[in-house]
Amino acid sequence: MSHSPLSVEEWRAVLAGEPAGAAAALFDAAQGGDRLAALHYGQCLLDGHGVDTDPQGAFRWFVQAAQSGLAPAMNMVGRCLDQGWGVDQTPHLAASWFAAAADKGDVWGLYNYATALTLGRGVEQDCAHALELFRRAAAMGHAKSQNMIGSFHEDGWEVPVNLNIAAYHYARAAEGGDFRGCFNHARMEIAHGRLEVAQRWLAEAARLGHARFRHQMAQWLNGREEESLRRFADQILSTDMTPA
Fold it and tell me: What's the pTM?
């Protein structure tokens, strides 16, 4: 017995509800050929959201959605191949999927392909092209790309070193919610002696960042002369040791 497709409002209600119910609805729609449902159900399987975690199954759904031409799914196929989620880690194939997503204007595809070009991961290194792609993504409001543009200007990759331009992009990345942008913005504020402002952004970086990043940030702060920054490093480490 066939079912009428759900309206946008009905989908919003389903996805806002209980996770297992949302996953089941997505599975049914994906089985019926809905490529967006296939993408989102793949994400449920990858994250274990409403279903048991199944990276191999997630990869299969991402591939199915990507083969229909859905750019975000192309990016997720690339992510799986890059990280080894449910499939062998294959950087050169990952880069080709990121490039395909970027060609369609997908913001995460632009970011991930630009990152691959910057690192020379799975593709020949090309920082000039990478910067162009980061700029395209940043123009779409992508905070992580703003942070990367800041790094290019701070370190002099393909552009002259300019700390003022770097600081501008770090600030935009921080405002956009990128934890590395928060940290880099704080570094710029520390360099200007604005410790109170810097600590607010360090706290935000600690809140948004993962455990490994928080430890790296604490190590950097412990190397500073300012006592208040070293105290903040201790706070970060003690928070990491608190059971979840």
Answer: 0.91
